[in-house]
């Protein structure tokens, strides 16, 4: 019981590019007092602190090699452990990216408190990215963004099924206006006894 009390609330926010993850995570940070993190931010922070691990990662990047997946997971686990000490929950944006990441996280840290999936069509994601000015008129760039949106939809299926089986998944209709999406998220989180 005491151990369970100390476990921080960890919510994974999944969604394709342009689905609204950043905005909704900011709102969750305000509403629920969560710390919003991304693996990219954790990596930047590690590179800037000049730790031994940071220097190693810098060397890997300098050589143009792919960062080891286990190191990124270690960064996330360290951030979760830090939240335990601070008594603060977190919302992790864009994680997990594949089923293996989900299973490795669970093996080391247990299940997340909840998983929120911002569901919208590849066309909607692409349209939002275009309206934010992230798309130039280059047809190569447009094709790349469309492929990223479609790729998320197909790549995420195994993760979605994994969290559905565990009854942790809350699928949110992200086709709606941002305030309507946030209302759905609040309802899902509050009704699931996560908060």
TrEMBL record:
Keyword terms, alphabetized: Kinase, Nucleotide-binding, Transferase
Superkingdom of the source species: Eukaryota
Gene3D superfamilies per record: P-loop containing nucleotide triphosphate hydrolases (3.40.50.300)
CDD domains: ADK
SUPFAM superfamilies: P-loop containing nucleoside triphosphate hydrolases
Family in the record: Belongs to the adenylate kinase family.
PANTHER family: NUCLEOTIDE KINASE (PTHR23359)
Full protein name: Nucleoside-diphosphate kinase
Native source species: Ameca splendens
């Amino acid at each position: 019981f005491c151990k369970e009390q100390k476990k921080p609330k960890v919510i994974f926010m999944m969604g394709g590019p342009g689905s609204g993850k950043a905005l909704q995570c900011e709102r969750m940070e305000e509403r629920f007092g969560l710390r919003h993190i991304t693996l990219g931010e954790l990596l930047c922070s590690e590179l800037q602190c000049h730790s031994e691990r940071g220097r190693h990662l810098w060397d890997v990047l300098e050589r143009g090699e792919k960062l080891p997946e286990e190191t990124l997971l270690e960064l996330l686990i360290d951030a979760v452990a830090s939240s335990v000490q601070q008594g603060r929950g977190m919302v992790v944006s864009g994680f997990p990216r594949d089923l293996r990441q989900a299973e490795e996280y669970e093996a080391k840290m247990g299940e997340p408190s909840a998983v929120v999936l911002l569901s919208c069509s590849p066309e909607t994601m692409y349209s939002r990215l275009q309206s934010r000015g992230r798309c130039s008129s280059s047809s190569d760039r447009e094709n790349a963004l469309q492929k990223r949106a479609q790729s998320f939809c197909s790549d995420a299926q195994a993760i979605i099924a994994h969290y559905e089986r565990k009854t942790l998944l809350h699928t949110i209709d992200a086709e709606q206006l941002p305030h309507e999406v946030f209302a759905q998220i609040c309802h899902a989180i509050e009704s699931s006894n996560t908060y």
